[in-house]
Amino acid sequence: MSPDRYADPQALRSAIADRLRPLAEERGIELSNLQRQFAYDRLLSRVFTSDPDRWVLKGGTAMLARIGPEARHTRDVDLLNRDGGLEEAERALHVAARTDLEDFFTFTLGPGRHLTEAVHALRVPVDAHLGVKRFAEFHVDLVAELTMTGSTESVPPLVPTEIPGLERTTYIAYPLVDHIADKVCALHETHERVSGLQEPSSRYRDLADLAVFAHTVKVDARDLKVALASEATRRGMVLPSRLTVPTDSNWSRGYARVVRDAPRLRERHLETAIATVRLFIDPVLDGSLEGRWNHDGLHWEATTDAEPEPA
After folding, report:
1. pTM for the full model?
2. Cys-Cys crosslink for 39: which of 80, 128, 170, 194, Cβ 3.0 to 4.6 Å?
3. What's 197's DSSP letter?
4. What kind and span of H or E run contains 192?
5. Which CATH number is associated with domain 9-173?
6. pLDDT in tens, 253-290
7. 10 Å Cβ neighbour count for 36?
């Protein structure tokens, strides 16, 4: 059965464009980026409808769902498989992508390839079609066998647009403290070149994401310490007592490229981003305090065990 209001794919395509165009202008992003996010939602609706207990949304897509337009646009979908390894995750993703939600969307998945920087990661290319015409192309990064120290949470779809006849569902997002810890560790992780030299991180987007988190989330220092210790152990690394980010020209240029996808990010320059993220992360790295992060004032506030958690 076709969606209630739209009898064919072209009518639905036009309706999607009509709704997304003003939203793209409001957010200051390209319409094509918002269309890609809409395609993410159509695939994720299938994923979390077909086997909701298997999957956890990670990465930039989790940030978009959790925070909304404050987060940067991301060109991939990140999913954690909670039931088995990567091969099983790839098979399950193919099955989920074939779920018929009667929305005229179909998804063609190519073979996954292992990412060079992570043993437990598989990148799967995706072509999204609305009817017979391509709507978007992207990839899904699958990970498995990760330990979560915090609690997952329910998050809404990435694009807050209701279209009659299109089924939408909520997603399960990676715990906030583990998400932050993953980015802090990625910033400090080095990789060995063929020559044997250690290459410093080039994860410019993780610094930008941490600056976004600093302005938008509430988190407890003790929970974040546990998450940081767990993630550092998993990666076999020792974190410094203070955020350490290169400030050379490569990093300045790389960060400048990343912020183009985050028009609402306040820290437009590398130095200001480092300063903000250090306020957020350094007191947890050096263990100098307990408390809760105040994202409005960009400082940590002391709390007592008897103090209730914020709603």
Report:
1. 0.90
2. 128
3. P
4. strand 191-192
5. 3.10.450.620
6. 999 999 998 999 999 999 999 999 999 999 999 998 88
7. 22
